[in-house]
Amino acid sequence: MGYQAHYIHPDLKLSRFDDKFYKADVLFEHHLLVWFISGETKIVQGENTFWFGAGDTLLFPRNQLVTVINYPKDGLPHQSAVMHLTPKRLTDFYAKNRVDVKPMPTPAFRTFDRHPLLKSCLASLIPYFDLNESLPDVIAAIKIDEAINILRTIDTDIDHLLANFDEPGKISLTDFMEQNYMFNMTMDKFGYLTGRSLTTFKRDFKKTFQTTPQKWITNKRLELAHYQIREKKRRPSDVYLEVGFENLSHFGHAFKKRFGYAPTELAG
């Protein structure tokens, strides 16, 4: 069995992965607070890779690209409890808790060092997942407000992230694509995140890189894979997902077409 999502409320779910691993390039429309219950998670953001396991808590900011790979571990499936901090919930919360929002650099996901307050918040949620009925909205609202207040208590800068409802503005295409070409996103999404319509994105891309987005992205991924295999001595099977390929066979074919030899030859 693969992925299962048990929603007790539109903003609260229990996720479970039973397969060997699950990989996805994700772009969330709103912030997610995630408690890892079992299994292991690998997150790739830009050139950085992070590992998390049972007991860890993360906040994924909205509109940020990351690659997430979930693994079962120690005979247990990968399980996590997920709370959606939607714009509606946050707008209602900050209407009652007004703050002055300061500009922030591009937000990265945040970790909270297994903080006991967040641990107790998760512990209070777990019994609700055994319900055979939906959780009333009034109770869900109480739990979500509790989580937001805990985040504000342990991270004094969190308001500047959670209370910022601005949409992405027009940014440098070169800088953004150099940092995010390994993510499998539609051209519409790439355009949105750079503050452009699809038509403007394609036009600006052609002007900037003198080629199409797909050709440029594929070439950049192959160059990164080549570097990882040759310089970092990594195996092709450990690299292809991270650089943006979904299939090892397709990766090997594209690699050989680009460089004239198979990735296994370079690794050997």
From TrEMBL:
Alphabetized PANTHER family for the sequence: HTH-TYPE TRANSCRIPTIONAL ACTIVATOR RHAS, HTH-TYPE TRANSCRIPTIONAL ACTIVATOR RHAS-RELATED
One MF annotation (Gene Ontology) recorded for this entry: DNA-binding transcription factor activity
Coiled coil (UniProt feature): none
Keyword Transcription regulation: yes
A Pfam family it matches: HTH_18
Protein name: Helix-turn-helix domain-containing protein
Residues covered by the HTH araC/xylS-type domain: 171-268
Annotated InterPro entries: AraC_XylS_family_regulators, ExsA-like_N, Homeodomain-like_sf, HTH-like, HTH_AraC
SUPFAM superfamilies: Homeodomain-like, Regulatory protein AraC
Keyword terms of this UniProt record: Cytoplasm, DNA-binding, Transcription, Transcription regulation
Keyword Phosphoprotein recorded: no
